[in-house]
Design brief:
The chain has about 325 residues and is α/β, with parallel strands linked by helices. It has helices spanning about 15-30, 50-60, 75-85, 105-110, 130-145, 165-170, 180-185, 210-225, 225-255, 260-295, and strands spanning about 1-10, 35-40, 65-70, 90, 115-125, 155-160, 190-195, 305-310. The radius of gyration is 25 Å and the shape is elongated. It has an 8-stranded mixed β-sheet, with helices on both faces. The chain is built from 10 helices and 8 strands. About 30% of the residues are buried. Helix 5 (about 130-145) runs parallel beside helix 8 and helix 9 runs antiparallel to helix 10. It binds uridine-5'-diphosphate (UDP) and magnesium ion. Magnesium ion binds near residues 94, 96, 98 and 205.
Length: about 325
């Protein structure tokens, strides 16, 4: 019998745990040709999430729980879940039921037909603020303009992935994985599965602006080296402008068509402009250097505090 593995990250989802488990289990129990496992990752929530997950895992041996020592972020949580997948196919889904688990049978059908990655593409997004929709749109636009692989817009982490692709993902050495981009980067036979994104079942989004910005910059920096080239272009432009200004100043002085006070103004403007350019450049470069530094430390993407219903082999996380 084939086996499907669910990967579900949770961060402060105490209001959602039971309903999520019930709905997902309901769908999986109805699959005749499949066994299943549900891997929940508690991403360092300090509320009752872990306690509730432990209760579920006690009753149901198909439920596995990984609990992080602190909040390491959504991408880290999914990455950790993927490492524990033992099924033939994995489905990554948000805990808040915005992505309906009822779609899983259709996705599995597409997998049986030979698709190796079936990714959810949002047709409609209920209950999300205009701000969120707008920023999401801007993010995908920028990312695709800058990056070298095509990252489909309106897709999140909701997707079905063949075990062989999961293995490839697990074997990538980078620590700060931006999964959405990496799935595209890996290739394989991909299928865009359109669906309507629902409202959150309960609780609030765990993606405040700060986390969204971090995800956006992770995505852009890890999928493109164009920003660093932009720094070069800015440098050349600013040198050109300063040369023009220099010539202008000399001419103005020689032919006295502009008083010195105007000169002072232009100097101040020039100084502030160029220090602006330099700061901007330094910031972009430091993003890359920071990334290199992070990777060179070789720290894991997350620390697991506890595992439930998962056999320990000597696998390192
Ligand atoms: N999540 C997580 N760690 C975080 C933030 C979010 O594991 O630091 C989980 C969260 O519990 C949910 C999923 O990631 O299952 C998506 O988060 P959310 O629904 O808050 O994001 P949105 O749908 O608003 O983009
Ligand atoms: Mg959500």
């Amino acid at each position: 019998m084939q086996k499907v593995s669910m990967v579900i990250p949770m961060y402060y989802e105490e209001k959602v745990v039971d309903e999520c488990y019930k709905r997902v289990k309901g769908v999986l129990d109805n699959l005749k040709d499949y066994e299943y496992e549900i891997i929940f990752i508690n991403d360092g929530s300090q509320d009752k999430t872990l306690e509730l997950l432990e209760n579920v895992a006690k009753e149901d041996k198909n439920v596995k729980v990984i609990s992080f020592a602190r909040n390491f972020g959504h991408q880290a949580a999914v990455t950790a879940g993927l490492k524990e997948v033992t099924g033939d196919v994995a489905v990554i889904i948000d805990a808040d039921l915005q992505d309906p688990p009822e779609l899983i049978p259709d996705m599995l059908k597409l997998w049986e037909e030979g698709n190796e990655v079936v990714y959810g593409k949002r047709k409609k997004r209920d209950g999300e603020s205009i701000f969120k929709l707008l920023t999401a749109k801007m993010f995908y636009k920028t990312l695709n303009a800058l990056s070298d692989v095509d990252i489909p817009k309106d897709t999140g982490d909701f997707r079905l992935v063949d075990k062989k692709v999961v293995d490839q993902m697990n074997s990538l050495p980078e620590h700060n994985k931006f999964l959405r981009g990496l799935w595209s980067w890996l290739g394989f036979k991909q299928y865009a599965f359109e669906y309507e994104r629902k409202e959150r079942f309960a609780g609030e989004t765990k993606y405040p602006l700060k986390k969204m910005l971090k995800l956006a910059s992770d995505g852009i920096i890890s999928f493109s080296s164009k920003p660093i080239k932009l720094v070069g272009a800015l440098g050349i432009i600013s040198i050109a402008i300063s040369i023009i200004l220099f010539i202008y100043a000399i001419l103005a002085y020689t032919f006295k068509f502009s008083g010195l006070s105007a000169g002072w103004t232009s100097i101040i403007v020039a100084i502030s402009f160029f220090s602006g350019v330099q700061l901007l450049s330094l910031w972009i470069i430091s993003e890359y250097i920071g990334r290199i530094y992070d990777e060179s430390k070789g720290r894991p993407q997350y620390i697991v505090e506890k595992k439930i219903n998962i056999k320990e082999d000597n696998k390192t996380d």
